Amino acid sequence: QSSQQVSNSPLIAGNIAHIPIKGIGTKCWCGNVDCLYTYAAGELLPMHYLKMLEKQKDKNFDSPLKGLAQKDITAKLLMEASAKGDPLARNVFDLATIAISKALAMIINLINPEVIVIGGSVANASADLVKKIEDLTKGQLMYQDSKSTTIVQSKFQNAAIIGAFHNIYSMVKSQQGKQLGKAMKKISKRT
Fold first, then answer.
1. What does the H/E/C string look like for 56-84?
2. Number of helices and strands (H, E) in the chain?
3. First to last CA, the chain
4. Burial letters for 12-36: b for 16+ Cβ neighbours within 10 Å, e otherwise?
5. Radius of gyration over alpha carbons of the chain, in Å?
6. 115 exposure class (CB count in 10 Å sphere: 0-12, 13-18, 19+)
């Protein structure tokens, strides 16, 4: 048993944001369509909410988020609205939890890790949401043994930044970092 971070290439280790998920045809910034990122990234949840609000047929529909600009809506505000019974906010989180659970089921069916740590504004919005993701994920697994994988919420608010720093620090200390430094010097001489 090891408490070491699993890594491969220093810039993409453990990043599952661009696993394709069958969805509604949302274009991702990476150029692909229906990446996990397009459904589960906290900064994109307000966009999904506002699109659903725009399509809302009930003129009497009321929400504490109605009238807010996309930049003012956070995952936490959406979670609060969902808890107060806003069906659109609940739908946004359902979309995110389904997408995340599909990606995690793929990972578990492929490599069956002991633990998966999820972070970011969606995971940090609610511990109940993480439990729902775990339950949905376990319903999609092939083998009973795979169901022993534990899915936990990151203890860090900025897990991605901490992970990126760790990767850069490790790379700089390694032979690969020395090679990168040499390559950067060559490039800077050309410009």
1. CCCCCCCCCCCCCCHHHCCHHHHHHHHHC
2. 8, 2
3. 47
4. eeeebbbbebebeebebeeeeebbb
5. 19
6. exposed
Matching residue, tokens 């697994």: 141
* pLDDT one-digit tens code per residue, 131-160: 899 999 999 888 776 678 888 888 776 666
**Tell me, what's the pLDDT at 125?**
75
The two three-digit tokens of residue 163, written as one number: 């992970």
Instruction: Residue 132: name the closest of 58, 79, 67 by CA.
Output: 79
Pair of tokens at residue 47: 């966009």
Contact criterion met (CB below 8 Å) for 34 and 25: yes
Tokens of 107: 């990972």
Joined together, the tokens standing for residue 125 give: 């919005």
For residue 95 the two structure tokens come to 């979309």
Residue with tokens 């490790």: 170
In angstroms, rounded to a whole number, what is the distance separating the alpha carbons of residues 95 and 88?
10
CB 36 within 8 A of CB 22: no
Q: How many residues does the chain have?
A: 191
Question: For 12-23, what is each residue's pLDDT tens digit?
Answer: 556 788 888 877
Residues forming beta bridges with residue 116, ordered by sequence position: 151
- The answer to whether the beta carbons of residues 179 and 186 sit under 8 Å apart is no
